[in-house]
Amino acid sequence: MAEDKQQHDRRLFSCTTCDFTVDYHYKGRKPPFANCILLHEECYVLKDPFSSSGGFVTVGGLCSMCNRDVCLSNGCSLFYTQRFCTNCSVKHIQEFPHELQQEIMHKLKS
To answer: Which residues form the Cysteine-rich DPF motif domain (predicted)?
Structure first.
């Protein structure tokens, strides 16, 4: 019975760019288990399994343009005032500062 409830309560984050998938505990800007923390964006957060003092790990967020779930890997997304997936950052590259445009182009080459 308890296992059924855990399966029902299970929340799964899946990056739409890569194969990264992980269970998460909270989606939002203020994790209830992390005191005095306000994130700059709505994120997928899991409790840090190695911390006893309310630590957390941010695993992903939403692209601010296409609203797709993306992990925080450099190959999948970037954060510049908001989160952008790789596809949207390439599609709208001219809207980013020159230095960031160079970084986006470098990511494409690698």
So the answer is: 13-104
Burial class of 60 by CB neighbour count within 10 A (0 to 12, 13 to 18, 19+): buried
The domain of 49 spans 2-109
**Distance between start and end Cα atoms, the chain:** 49
* pTM tops 0.85, yes or no: no
Into how many domains does the chain fold?
1
What tens digit of pLDDT does each residue of 23-76 get?
999 999 998 888 788 899 999 999 888 877 778 999 999 999 999 999 999 999
H or E segment to which residue 46 belongs? strand 43-47
